[in-house]
Write a structure and sequence with these properties.
With 427 residues, the protein is α/β, with parallel strands linked by helices. The protein has 2 domains: 296 residues, UDP-N-acetylmuramoyl-L-alanine:D-glutamate ligase (3-Layer(aba) Sandwich), CATH 3.40.1190.10; 120 residues, Alpha-Beta Complex (Protein-Tyrosine Phosphatase, Chain A). It has 18 helices and 17 strands. A hairpin with an 8-residue loop joins strand 9 and strand 10. The longest helix is centred in the N-terminal third of the chain and has 18 residues. The two termini are 29 Å apart.
Length: 427
């Protein structure tokens, strides 16, 4: 099959959670284990780092990949979802898997796929592990998809596991309390493997500690050791980092400008310290350059990404209450004449709760992301109207952004978001 035919096969014949939602969810690892057994278990052929969490796991994954690349390691990165190109999910040293490798893998194993009927994510994880083995990578940064315990990536034995934070998302699968969600995420903790917790909450800390003790896994809470002071907001992010109340790194800069990255940076720094303890050669300059060049090094898209200067247009993939509340707070404090929002969502989110985060004193451009899970723009506008969020509907994300740009003055600011898939159509 050609690459185009391969993608059509993957997207249309195999269930994919990001596109169709609950019908694609598999509550066990049987398919993944079957596939990997047929491939000779490639996931055991390279060293890895496993990252889970409600928010921030993509940024933390890319930060770590950037630091390892700066240190000279041949670094693999597996993340989801993609924004523009399927191959964004599978990279080595910031370079996407070649189209011919995607086609080769599917052609070689299509008979097995037809028999096992894996989900899109199960097949893609197997493809990534197979590619990383054949390319003989030094380290692979592996991001979970939705959860942890039953995630298709939870077949690796990593050098270290990381849980960025716990918030309410995918509650129909992971549970309706922070404790239940934490149990699912804690499923990536392995016996005798260190675990780093980025943000700790009263409801989740005991869950993680209990699992870590049971599995004899050393546990580190980043916020207990690391803190950030003296943020230079004029050219955010530049900050001083303290460890155990002593200056650790002065004037640390990040290429990612969203204020929510501060918590992700602490998670990464704690992880780096543990990685050094277990033998990885990651120097201070590698860390500095890794943060400063994370976008250029890894080709990360959609995190507080500036699309235009006059008017200022910011696209951000925050898509749940925890992530959006921080992102919107930063956006609304930007100097502006009028606030404008190009807004779309998917149909399995808590729309009312999410919309309640947005300011009434703003102009809205409602749209539907171009996936089956996309929430109808008229439905979104109707829900928004009940909260005094007023605007017009548009048939596509691009048309909504074009309308916002035409109506905006140079002093206005425009936010594009509400869903990863809204951002994907404009970055």
């Amino acid at each position: 099959m050609t690459y185009t035919e391969v993608l059509a096969y993957m997207f249309s014949q195999l269930p994919m959670y990001q596109r169709i939602g609950a019908a694609a969810y598999k509550a066990d690892l049987n398919n993944t284990i079957q596939l990997l057994n047929l491939l000779g278990n490639p996931q055991h052929s390279f060293r890895s780092i496993h990252i889970a969490g409600t928010n921030g796991k993509g940024s933390v994954s890319h930060y770590l990949a950037s630091i390892f690349q700066q240190a000279g390691y041949k670094t693999a990165l597996y993340t989801s979802p993609h924004l523009k190109d399927f191959r964004e999910r599978i990279k080595i040293n910031g370079i996407m898997i070649p189209k011919r490798e995607v086609s080769r893998f599917v052609d070689a194993h299509k008979t097995d796929f037809d028999e096992i009927q894996p989900s899109f994510f199960e097949m893609t994880a197997a493809m990534a592990f197979d590619y990383f083995r054949r390319q003989k990578v030094d380290i692979a940064i592996i991001e979970t998809g939705m959860g942890g315990r039953l995630d298709s990536t939870n077949v690796i034995r990593p050098e270290i596991a990381v849980i960025t934070n716990i918030g309410f998302d995918h509650t129909q699968f992971l549970g309706d309390t922070l404790e239940k969600i934490a149990v699912e995420k804690a499923g990536i903790i392995k016996p005798d493997i260190p675990i780093v917790i980025g943000e700790s909450q009263m409801e989740t800390q005991a869950v993680f500690s209990e699992v870590a003790v049971k599995l004899k896994a050393r546990i580190y809470f980043a916020e207990e050791s690391f803190s950030i002071k003296n943020i230079a907001e004029a050219d955010f992010l530049s900050c001083d980092v303290y460890r155990d109340n002593k200056l650790y790194l002065k004037n640390l800069e990040s290429e990612l400008k969203g204020i929510y990255q501060l918590k992700n940076m602490l998670t990464v720094l704690q992880t780096v310290e543990v990685l050094r303890e277990i033998g990885f050669n990651l120097k201070e300059e590698d860390v500095r350059q890794g943060f400063a060049n994370v976008v250029s090094t890894t080709a990360l898209l959609g995190r507080w990404q500036q699309l235009s200067e006059l008017p200022l247009v910011i696209a951000d993939t925050a898509h749940n209450v925890a992530g959006l509340s921080i992102s919107l707070n930063q956006f609304c404090t930007l100097p502006h004449k009028d606030l404008r929002f190009v807004l779309g969502m998917v149909n399995d989110k808590d729309v009312k709760k999410t919309l309640s985060l947005f300011p009434a004193k703003a102009v809205y451009y409602f749209c539907k992301p171009d996936i089956p899970r996309g929430l109808d723009a008229a439905t979104l506008a109707s829900e928004a109207c009940q909260l005094d969020l007023i605007g017009k509907t548009y048939p596509t994300v691009k048309k909504a952004l074009q309308a916002a740009m035409l109506e905006a003055s140079a002093e206005d600011v425009i936010y594009v978001g509400g869903s990863t898939f809204v951002v994907a159509e404009v970055v």
